[in-house]
Amino acid sequence: MLIKFIIVLALFIIIGSLFSALYFLAKDKTGGERTVKALTVRIGLSITLFILLMIGYYAGLLGQ
Length: 64
Known about the structure:
Blueprint: H1 2-27, H2 33-59
Helix pairs in contact: 1-2
């Protein structure tokens, strides 16, 4: 049950990071440093979530 909560929480954080990148893209007129940083965080979180899903599946923590 805890693993499922962590997965849902990670998905919400990934979506939040995506919307923050969209906000920075729309509001920053000088450059895209904050946009790139927010998208980099999103990619890192997505990769971490994928690895967590694979570990959970192979360990039998996630149902089939």
